[in-house]
Amino acid sequence: MRRLLDFDLVIEAHGDGYQTRVIASPAGEAQASFVAPFSDKDLRILVLEVVGSIGRMRRKVRRIENQDRQRIEEFGGQLYEALFTGAVGDCLGLSRVTAESRDAGLRIRLRLPGALANIPWEYLYDAQHGFLGLDPDTALVRYLELPAPVRPFPIRPPLRILAMISAPSDVAELDTEREWSKLTETLQPLISQGLVEVDRLENGTLAALTRPLRLREYHVLHFIGHGGYDEESQDGALALEDATGKARLVTGRDLSMMIRHRSLRLVVLNACEGSRVAPDDPFSGVAQALARQGIPAVIAMQFEISDPAAVVFSQSFYQAIADGLPVDVATVEARRAMFAGDNEIEWATPVLYLRSVDGRIFTKRGGSQRDREEAERRAQEQTRPLAEERPKAEQRAGTGPSPPTTEPRPGEEAERQAREEAERQAREEAERQAREEAERQAREDAERQAQEQTRPLAEERPKAEQRAGTEPSPPTAEPQPRVPVPVWAPAILAVPLLILALNVLSHHFTRSWALVVLGSSVLGAVVAAVEHRRRPIPVWTAALEFFFAWFLVYALYKLNIGDVQNASKYVPPRVILTGVAAIVSAALAIRALTRLPSGVGRRILTAFLACMAVGLGAAALGYAGSRYGQVQALHNIGPSCSRIGAVFLFAALLVDLLAPILALVRRLNPAPP
Fold first, then answer.
1. How far is CA 327 from its chain centroid?
2. Domain 488-668, what fold?
3. How far apart are CA 518 and CA 402, in angstroms?
4. Where are the domains of the chain?
5. How far apart are CA 124 and CA 80, in angstroms?
6. Are 197 and 188 in contact (CB under 8 A)?
7. Which DSSP letter does residue 205 get?
8. pLDDT in tens, 588-645
9. Which of 40, 267, 519, 532 has the fewest CB neighbours in a 10 Å radius?
10. Dist CA 494 CA 532 (whole Å)
11. Percentage of the chain surpassing pLDDT 70?
C-alpha cells in the first residue's frame, strides 16, 4: 500500500458566496472562488434520479446505453471544474506530480460548510483521471478537524462488530430477521476465518447499548435502520425504539454519550429500504456529530443502498479493516469493489467522515515497536490544528483571490526542516513516556474488562417462526471467555517440581540435581516472561515466576553457594523456604479464584496452586520433624507429612502438565465465533 500525502481543501463563506483554499499540500497553498454549478433544485433532482437508478437496478432493469452513468459523470465533471478551478486546480496538478515523484498518492481532505454537506462530493469526476472516489492513488474523505489527536487503537483479530437493528412500529416496516441474516451472511467468509465477530443487540433501544459495551471490547457499531429529522434540535437523528417499540429520535450528540468507549473507533450508519424519501440526508448531521464527539471515523450511506451493493461493501470494507488498512483506504477499496460488481451508481453511497490525521484508527496488536512508534510520531506531528493557518474570512472580505503559492525557496525549506527536526527531538522523551503510560493503561483496561466478563453477555436471537404467536424464548447465553493458559513455562516447571517431590520423599538431593533445578529455573523464568508478553496472563505468570524464583533460591541453597548451609546451625532454611512457599501458593490460589473468569483455565491454575500449598506445607512439617527429632510430636508426624507432601507435589506436577495439553486442545478446536 502506497503512503498518502495530505491535500487539505477548505470551502468557506466569502462575502455572498464561497471560496476554496488549499491550506496544506505537497505543492503549497492556493485559493480561488467557488460557485456551485447547480441550484438546490438541480441537486434535489439529481438525488431523486440516483435513488430511482438504484431502484431500477434492484428490479434488474438494464440498458445498453447507461444514461444514469452519463448524468453522474456530467454532474461530477461540473462539480470538479467548480472546485478545482484556477490556482486550486494548478495546485492539485502540482501535488499529483510531487506525490508521484515520492512514490505516494494523495489524501484529499474536504472541510465543508454545513450548507454544502448534502452535495455528493464522492462523484467528483476528472476526464483524465476518472472518478476521484475510485482512484486507487486518491482517498477522498470529509475531514473534521478537532484539537485532540486520534491515536490508533491496538487490536488483535477478530474485529468485533456490534450490530444494532432498529425497527420502530410506527415507521416504515423493517424485517429485522432478514436484515440480521443479510449482515451475518455478508460477513460469514470473514467470520469463518476468525477475522470478524458480530453480536446483535437484543433490541433497538438506546438503553440496550450500555451493558454490551461495558462487558465487551467492541471496535465497530453497525447501525441498520431509519433516519429522521428532530425538529427540536434542528438536526438529523436516528429513529431508535422506545420502551413501547415506537420511534424515538436520537441525535448524534445523544448517541455519542452512550457509545463513547475507548475501543469503539468506527460507526457505520446503514440506511435500509425506504429510509430516505427526501433529498436531505439525515445521517449527515448524525455522522458529523458522532465524529465531533470523539468517534474517530463514521461511515454514513447518503442514499438508500441496494442489497447486492451492501453485501459487496460490507465484505470488502471489513476485510480491508481486518487486514490493517487505514479506514480511508479501506473505503476506497470497498467502493472499487462495488463498482467492479456492476454497481456503477451506488459505489458513491458510502460517505466517510474522518478525524484521524492519517486514516489509521486501528493497529494490529503485536505489531513491531517501530510501527507503533511511527504511528505515534505521525499523530504527534499533526496535533497542532491547521486552523491557526487560516485567516478569518471577514478579514479578507472584498479582496480578490491570491495567486498560488510557489514551492518554498531552498533556504526556507532547510530552515523549516531544521526546525521540525529540533521539535521532534525535543518531543522524543515526552512522547516515549506518554506511549509507555498509554500501553500500561491499555493492558490494565484489557485485564479489567476480562475480569468483568464473569457473566456472559446474553444473546437473544429467537427465530422468526418461534415468535409466531408466542413469547420469545429465553436468551441463550454466550460461552464464557476462555482464560489464556501458558504452554512452555509449565512444561519447564515440571522438571524442578519432579526433583523436589523425589527429594521430599527420599531426602536425597545430589549436586547434579541442584544444577538441573538451577538451569531449568532460569530458563523457565525467561520463557514465562516471553509468553506473558505475547499474551498477557497476569495470574498465571505471577505463579510461574514465583515458583521459578523459589526453585532458584532452593538450588542455590543446595549448592551451598557462599557457604549458606552454615546458617542451618541457627535457623531451619528448608522449613522456612517450604513454609513461605506454601503460604504464597495459598494466596495465589485465592487470587485465581477471585480474579479469573470461570472456566477450565481457572480450574487448572487453582488446582495446581492448591496442591502446591498442601504439598509444600506438608513438606515443611516433614523437614521440621527431621530437624527437631527431640520434639516428640514433630518426630512422630514428620515421616507421614513427608509422604503426604510428596503425593501432593506429584499431583501438582500432573495438574501442571494439563496446561500445555489444554493449549494444544484449544489450538485443535478453536472457539466458535
1. 12
2. 1.25.40
3. 77
4. 1-143, 153-367+439-464, 488-668
5. 5
6. no
7. B
8. 888 877 776 666 777 888 888 899 899 888 888 887 877 676 677 777 787 888 888 8
9. 40
10. 19
11. 69
What pLDDT shows up at residue 672? 46
Q: What pTM, to 2 d.p., does this model score?
A: 0.54
Give CA–CA dist 652/210, Å, rounded: 42
Tell me how far apart the terminal alpha carbons of the chain are, to the nearest angstrom.
Answer: 29
Half-sphere exposure of residue 293: CA atoms within 13 angstroms, side-chain side: 21
Neighbour-count burial for 295-331, b at 16+ CB within 10 Å, e otherwise: bbbbbbbbbbbbeebbbbbbbbbbbbbbebbbbbbbb
> Domain 153-367+439-464 falls in which CATH fold?
Rossmann fold (3.40.50)
The Cα–Cα gap between 579 and 595 comes to 24
Distance separating alpha carbons of residues 49 and 36, to the nearest angstrom: 19
Q: Tell me the per-residue pLDDT of 293-346, one tens digit each, with 9 for 90 and over.
A: 888 899 988 877 777 888 888 888 888 888 878 899 999 999 999 999 878 888
Question: Hey, what's the cell of 156?
Answer: 488483535
Helix (H/G/I), strand (E/B), else coil: 130: strand
H-only helix segments in 453-537? 464-467, 488-506, 511-534
Which residues have C-beta within 8 Å of that of residue 64, sequence separation ≥ 6?
A: none
